[in-house]
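Weekly modeling sync, notes
Attendees: S.R. (lead), two postdocs, one rotation student

Agenda item 3: backlog of single-chain predictions. S.R. asked that every request posted to the team notebook include the full sequence so nobody has to chase files. The rotation student volunteered to paste the first one in as an example of the format we agreed on. Action items at the bottom.

Example entry:
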Amino acid sequence: MDRTEFRRRVGERPYLFDGAMGTQLLAKGVSPEANLDGVNLSDPALVAEIHRAYIDAGADIIETNTFGANRYKLAEHGLADRLGEINQTAVTIARRVIEGSFKDVLLAGSVGPLGARLAPLGRVKRHEARAAFQEQIEALVTAGVDLLALETISDLWEMEEAVKAARAVALDIPIVAMMTFTRDDLTLLGNRPDTVARRLAGLDVDVIGVNCSGGPAQALRITMMMRHAAPEALLAASPNAGWPEASAEGRVFYPAAPDYYGKYAVGLTEAGACLVGGCCGTTEEHIAAMRLALDTPDYVGMELPHVRVVEREDKGTAVPDEPTQLAQYLADGTFVITVEMRPPRGVSAHRLLRGAHMLKEAGANILNIADTPVAQMRMSAWAAAHLVQKEVGLETILHFPTRGRNLLRVQGDLLAAYAMNIRNLFVTMGDPTRIGDYPEAMDTFDIVPSGLIQLIKKQFNA
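Predicted structure, as returned to the notebook:
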């Protein structure tokens, strides 16, 4: 089936995707530690059973069990060398189930995020990401999928590479491109639904939309925002069964019931979606409820919320930026004398401030404040820098190591530094914990110094 035929079909009536594969495999006894894509090889009958249940429930499109079948995720389980076999077997399993159903069901090749961040947030270069997507997509297309579902991707750059990879493999295969959003209706990298819609609509894809995320209510709201931003685009929505919650016994469950999904299926199509379905936590009962709702004339769905997309002005920082003293020195050609200081190892900053006063009197005009030098426990560097600036009157340069910080902490620490008027940064990797006070402490990082510098310059958390 080519793109023209696919667009014609979904333009005539809403098509229904299947529901979750991963949570169904776990519910049927697959270990959480197992590679779920590898179940195609270890227990193909179980995968077929889930496909069959979704077709019986009324799905028009089922997805292959290949959400994480790329080189990065498979390598975590020692399966990277079986990538082609896993993807092709997944297609074979699903195709046999479709043929045995004697129904007109389409087969989508599921392609999820790589599981490794692209630069500058991570170390994967864009051409490397494209190559990883391409080898998985080539295996799926060669094995005979009808379309591709690029799903649950939170990085627009990653989505762009996935689309380029798909088009390098097959120019005429239909592509559904779906992004995922956090509770605040933003992607993990801070993009709004209207921005996402415009970017996706500019790609060489056939349907754009939202999947996973926080449940049907959020998906409906985001679908309406996407429709406003890209009125000519075909839209898809396959939300989770709500945000996952944990019981007192530690079991994870999803709160949205099948009947609730049925009402939202109608609401989503009224909002403009031509493809609807389910993601994490949804079962064949959810898909059956959606099928019933879509096939019942005059079915009363969820009332559409009032959504108003407000165009933002060019964003800037909350307070107009004056150049720092260091910036002025450099612009004027003033010779800068700076000395590195270490924060105290306790709560008293008396010695630090006394030393700073002495250095000021000796002629230093800027002070560098180190952050956990040689991995030794010390007062936070931005607190020490704030005290020096406040009590001594000398501007500081804050050392900002990326080691030991995830993206949440990176952004929070940057905002804290700015709030305390610390605006000179020396971005560095930082010392490994193995040489310091706590050699067994966590030593990972989400971003390298060069990547953080790029993001700061782009005001990624402004």
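Discussion: group reviewed the output briefly. The domain at 325-457 is CATH 3.20.20.220 (TIM Barrel).
Action items: rotation student to repeat for the remaining queue; S.R. to check formatting next week.
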